[in-house]
Amino acid sequence: MDEPTLAQTSPTSGVPDFFVVMGIAGTGKTEIAQRLAQALGASFVEADTFHNASNVERMRNGIGLTDEDRWPWLNAVCDAALAERRPVVIACSVLKRRYRDLFRQRLGFLRILFLHGSIELIAERLQARKNHFASASLLESQVQTLEAPATDENPIIIDIAGTPEAIVARVRTELGV
Asked: How far is residue 35's CA from residue 37's CA, in Å, rounded to a whole number?
């Protein structure tokens, strides 16, 4: 397989080859990433589908993942993104800077949308979830693990209190598309 070409878009505008919608469980990564991919005519990768059975079982039992648990999963997500038609929108927590650094190493230029919100709203969303392995019991672990993107990562930072439509519209404005 040929080596992927790195994104040619500006770090401040345009649609990059790889766009990651990140945040802790319950922030709406999947819904926003799907809507954003549709709005941008991009491919969509859902990182949760690449967790191995052991990781899923741990999370079902309210046990947060370790770095060792996450590395194979994050590499699988990168492999999937590289196999897609560009641009690609990825829904993935990438809670730590070093996880995002792995994505940048593997994918090249990466634009990040960081979804955040009040703990109360996130807990409410997690409690309302049906048939998802990441439940409210993981909230504390997720919050403790989160390293919000730094300004040098050039993130788009949006509070989840808005509607999905408003969030996607704001991202499109930020991207200039």
From this structure: 5
* Residue 22, beta-bridge partner list: 114
Nearest CA-CA partner of 21 in 89, 70, 118, 79: 89
32 in Cβ contact with 93 (< 8 Å): no
Nearest-angstrom CA–CA distance, 22 and 69:
18
Give tens-digit pLDDT for 113-158. Answer: 999 999 899 888 777 656 545 545 577 888 888 999 999 999 999 9
SS3 34: helix
Domain ranges of the chain: 18-175
How far is it, in rounded angstroms, from Cα 91 to Cα 110? 13
Q: Which tokens in the block code for residue 113?
A: 């949308």
In angstroms, rounded to a whole number, what is the distance separating the alpha carbons of residues 158 and 90?
16
| Spatial contact of 19 and 87, defined as CB atoms under 8 Å apart | yes
Distances in Å between the Cα of 64 and the Cα atoms of 38, 79, 133, 140, 141 are 31, 23, 11, 9, 6
Segment 127-138, tens digit of pLDDT = 765 654 554 557
Cβ atoms 46, 30 nearer than 8 A? yes
Is pLDDT above 50 for 7? no
18-175 CATH fold: Rossmann fold (3.40.50)
